[in-house]
Design goal:
Elements (H helix, E strand, L loop, with lengths): L2 E7 L3 E7 L5 E8 L3 E2 L5 E3 L1 H19 L6 E8 L4 E5 L8 E2 L7 H6 L4 H8 L8 H11 L3 H6 L3 E5 H9 L6 E3 H4 L5 E2 L4 E2 L1 H7 L8 E3 L7 E2 L9 E8 H8 L8 E5 L3 E8 L10 E8 L2 E10 L3 H9 L10 H7 L7 E3 L17 E3 L7 H27 L6 E4 L6 H11 L3 E4 L4 H13 L5 H6 L3 E4 L5 H16 L5
Parallel strand pairs: 1-6, 6-15, 10-13, 16-22, 22-23
Antiparallel strand pairs: 1-2, 2-3, 4-5, 5-8, 7-9, 11-12, 14-15, 16-17, 17-19, 18-19, 20-21, 23-24
Helix pairs in contact: 9-14, 10-12, 11-12, 12-13
């Protein structure tokens, strides 16, 4: 029996998943890492911590499952995407990883605002500090010695996957995949190359960027810092949301998924030609596999699952996220409380970095139950905003939404999501779709898995909409009015 390791290095922690020859998960181990947040609201991770955790979770899952290390066939990696970092030729980071949530690059984006249209035309992305380019530019401008190393060609920079690959292969492989490259805001999604003009606008030397290769391609070999006697190939790399899209089996044009995590990504497969949005979502690459690329429309939301963390840890309305379903069902159906969680601005489809959060519609009879329901509802409303504009941009009528992530266990939320979208919502029995997608890509790349068989075997729970149309429109209109309260442009 041969096995695949799936590593998912996400915002909150690092997971290792062990898969058998049928693509079934045999075991999982994960470790959290520190969320470093300063008084300015800047968000960072220690790369040494999450790299060390990567090695540790792999050891733990292999030992937990009791398999022979010699039976490991390969590794797939999924990663938090727009998070960016820089490291020297020895693999030592010159600064902490700057997390995708961090907006410290806003001033850089404003400084090059005249290039915004060019950047969007070339990369498919709205000029924003959300993406990696402004973060890397910030490192080059603010970290002592970084610019000098970059000019000398002695600095590597990019997304978390390229750092992990570099370290796992002891510097032998400096690569990234098409999905991650397309989210840096430095990659031309039409020419499929790093974009010289865009990089020049940000002040980032192109020569130091990683080689871009297929998402199920070969990324070198690793022994996990001596844990394995014989190294095994890293044969799949995908950004976490792309991994989830692939893991969900959204491999045909028009299929769409939403990943509910700290934030959320809504992604629609639009086929082998890019669709450029006119309504605030972005164009990216889904992946490159076997020499061919496919494209997506994507909208990203900063705060979805994190809203539940906020009402738990900061407002102390709940002790556990598990309480939210029951409380939401007890809320007054007539209450019109809305939460617009623009804690660090609003992402797609609004792209307003200056927006701040608001709670509206509160009355004297609004209680804890109504506030908790509003926190859940705002997740579904934000997802719906994005699906609606994708329908229009792509000219595709969405048949269903496939979903994944921790909040999908909340049956109230899934019912409300189906109702407010007015389409079925499907939740797979398997969790951790990002890691699944990367492991599947690796297994396919290694010839272990048959793609069609993998996705046909996946079990799902289906939610069917049953909300009155007038009620749906009333609720959506109320949300739209609440959003208008926070927009600054």
């Amino acid at each position: 029996m041969k096995y695949i390791i799936g590593i998912d290095q996400s915002t909150q922690g690092t997971k290792a998943l062990l898969f058998d020859e049928n693509g079934d998960i045999l075991g999982r181990e994960d470790l959290p890492h520190e969320q470093i947040i300063n008084e300015k609201g800047w968000v960072e991770h220690n790369p040494e911590e999450f790299y060390g955790n990567t090695i540790e979770v792999v050891k733990k899952v292999v030992e937990k499952c009791g398999i022979s290390k010699s039976d490991l066939a390969g590794v797939g990696i999924s990663n938090q995407r727009e998070t960016a970092l820089a490291w020297d030729m020895d693999g030592k980071p010159v600064y902490n990883a700057i997390v995708w949530q961090c907006a410290r690059g806003e001033a850089i984006c404003r400084r090059i605002a005249d290039s915004a249209e060019m950047v969007k035309e070339h990369t498919g992305l709205q000029l924003s500090p959300y993406f990696s380019a402004a973060k890397i530019a910030w490192i080059l401008e603010n970290v002592d010695g970084a610019k000098k190393l970059a000019d000398e060609g002695k600095l590597c920079y990019g997304t978390v996957d390229s750092f992990l690959v570099y370290r796992l292969t002891k510097g032998a492989s400096y690569k990234t995949d098409y999905s991650n490259a397309s989210r840096t805001q430095m990659f031309n999604i039409s020419t499929l190359k790093w974009d010289e003009e865009v990089c020049r606008a940000f002040g980032i030397p192109v020569k130091n960027l990683a080689e871009v290769t297929d998402s199920n391609g070969y990324y070198g070999e690793t022994d996990f810092e001596g844990y394995l006697e014989n190294p095994i190939p890293i044969h799949g790399v995908l950004g976490d949301s792309h991994g989830a899209l692939f893991g969900q089996g959204c491999i045909e044009k028009g299929m769409i998924k939403a990943t509910y995590g700290t934030g959320s990504s809504v992604m629609m497969n639009v086929g082998d030609k890019p669709v450029f949005s006119k309504h605030g979502v972005v164009s990216s690459l889904a992946w490159g596999m076997d020499g061919k690329v496919e494209y997506v429309l994507e909208g990203n939301i900063n705060y979805t699952g994190a809203v539940i963390t906020w009402i738990q840890k900061d407002l102390h309305l709940i002790e556990s996220a598990k309480e939210t379903e029951e409380l939401a069902r007890k809320a007054n159906p007539e209450d019109r409380t809305y939460i617009v969680p623009a804690f660090t601005g609003l992402g797609a489809p609004y792209w307003d970095s200056d927006a701040t959060a608001v709670i509206s519609g509160v009355t004297r009879t609004t209680r804890r139950e109504e506030m908790v329901r509003a926190a859940l509802d705002c997740i579904a409303y934000q997802i719906t905003d994005i699906v609606d504009v994708m329908r229009e941009d792509a000219g595709i009528e969405v048949q269903e939404l496939r979903v994944d992530g921790g909040p999908t266990k909340n049956r109230y939320l899934m019912e409300f999501q189906s109702n407010i979208l007015n389409i079925p919502v499907q939740v797979p029995a398997a969790e951790e779709l990002s890691g699944i997608g990367a492991a599947y890509a690796a297994g396919i790349g290694l010839g272990m898995y048959d793609k069609d068989e993998l996705f046909m075997r996946m079990k799902r729970e289906k939610y069917i909409p049953d909300m009155n149309e007038a009620v749906r429109e009333k609720k959506k209109n109320g949300w739209s009015e609440a959003v208008k309260l926070v927009l600054t442009k």
